[in-house]
Amino acid sequence: MQRTFLLKFSVFNFLLVAFLGVIMRYKIVYSFPFLDQKYLQEAHSHFAFYGWITSTVYVLMTIYLSKVNPEIPLRKYKTLITVNLVASFAMLGAFMYGGYFWASIAASTVALLCSFVFAYFFFKDSVKIKDASKIWFRAGLFFAVISSLGVFNLSYMMSSHRMSQDIYLASQYYYLHFQYNGFFIFACIGFLLFSLKQAGSVIPEKENNRLFWLMFFGCLVGYGLSVLWMKLPVFIFGVIVLATLAQTLGTVKLFDFVRKSWANLKEKWSPLQRFILLFAGLAFAAKILLQLGSNIPALNQFAFGFRNVVIAYLHLVLLMCVAAFLMNQILLTGYFKMTKRLLLGVKLLLLGIFLNELVLGLMGIMSIKYISVPYANHLLLYFSLLMLVSLSVIFFSLKSREEQ
Questions:
Q1: CATH 1.20.120 fits 1-130, yes or no
Q2: At residue 56, does pLDDT exceed 60?
């Protein structure tokens, strides 16, 4: 399959995620009895993870391998990308139909096993590669693999009918943490460093290693922030605080390197591409600050005790940070014509994402005081429609440079 086709297909999947989001928002405001809201949410989240984010990361990692070592055979990766896409669409249909049952579990298992095989081949093929991004991609895939332990534990509890609310939540947060903060974020940092290298800014090996281990330790131990409500021993809490500080320091170092590289980016990147980097960087900085603040037990209880706060945080990472960044990476491949209509679509998408996060953030903050935001659900519906329209514009504007 052509890379341009796979990348455009990834954008189409993002479009489907936005479409499901509109339906869910519509069901909250108006009546739409044909689809179960819980099933829709499960279909939406699983397809966003595997059909949009994971699929896009796989394609971009394959492009990376082709650039750093053209001799690596890529057929197996294209097969895995296809298998992941088939499993993602199977999950989409199965979850919308009946939530968690044998078909949706089977499709999820296939996608999960696909990530194991992809990680194995990437580790094997990248052995001789000497590039700063390699360790970030390897770590991202490592986190993707270990995140599956949370899923396996959830499956075991469901099948054995031995449900513990604390273990159930801990397993759920384990999976989400190592997907969001591990796989997605580390893959994005890998893409960022490679893009900076292509723009003429190569991070020194020692600086890269120092930055990597700060972030890796922070992510590995940082899972503890998700389970502080389990009343962990004081010494474990101390290690978690150190891990959070390590990741904060790593983020400062990463931002400093981007700042030093800005002159090169001004020469090689368009103003919009630089703006998207700032946009995603702002979201990532907010994530790190919220993470740092959640070390305070009272704030942590607020964060995990209010559903609106959790939803706002997850959308901050997935939409404003990861999704916006990956969209920029698709444009940076240089495979597509940068038309005015495409740029308009991207600008509208960023606006929709920002407004959506603004309302979710206000809902999260106000819910702490049990105050509702007037017409919040209506606004979220309108902003989700804006994202859907903008993604439609982007999708239909993506024309390969080969078509010139």
A1: yes
A2: yes
Sign of the alpha-carbon torsion through 193, 194, 196, 200: positive
State the CB neighbour count (10 A cutoff) for residue 185: 24
CA distance 381 to 387: 10
Residue with tokens 């998408």: 349
Q: CB-based contacts of 393: which residues, under 8 Å, 6+ apart? A: 341, 342, 344, 345, 348
- CA–chain centroid gap for 258, Å, is 20
Between CA 60 and CA 6 the distance in angstroms is 10
Indicate yes or no: pTM above 0.90: yes
Say whether 192 sits in a helix, a strand or coil: helix
Instruction: Tell me the sheet residues that pair with 336.
Output: 400
CA angle, corner 379, sides to 374 and 382, nearest 5? 160
Give, as one character, the DSSP assignment of residue 400. B
Strand ranges inside 171-265, DSSP E? none
CA distance 371 to 84: 42
| Residues facing 400 on adjacent strands | 336
Domain boundaries, the chain: 1-130
By percentage, how much of the chain surpasses pLDDT 90? 69
Q: Say how many CA atoms lie within 13 Å of 45 toward its Cβ.
A: 16
Torsions phi, psi for 336 (to 5 deg): -120, 150
End-to-end CA, the chain: 20
Place 404 in a pLDDT band, splitting at 50, 70 and 90: very low
Tokens 């017409």: give the residue. 375
The pLDDT tens digits of the residues spanning 103-146 come to 988 899 899 999 999 999 999 999 989 999 999 999 999 999 99
Instruction: Write out the two tokens for 139.
Output: 């770590």
